[in-house]
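Narrative summary of target 7.
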Amino acid sequence: MESLYRKQNSGRGQYAKVVIDVATLPRGTIRGTATRGGWRVVTAAVPVAGMFGYVGDPRSRTRGRASHTMRFDTYAEAPVT
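Modeled conformation, tokenized:
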């Protein structure tokens, strides 16, 4: 079993595509997208094991113009490696 976190990435304008790309990087699965006040918000489920060292990635790819939040969601079967 592994812990899955609910992650939300937000970005606007030219960074909307980067926000979607970054949401799926660490074996993430997109659960939904929305637009709020010009911001693209992507919600994804990601395993916590894939999140170490992740914080700097969206910030560097968007030059500090995107944000993200994470919180525990559930447990799931870990994939066989």
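The mean pLDDT is 82.
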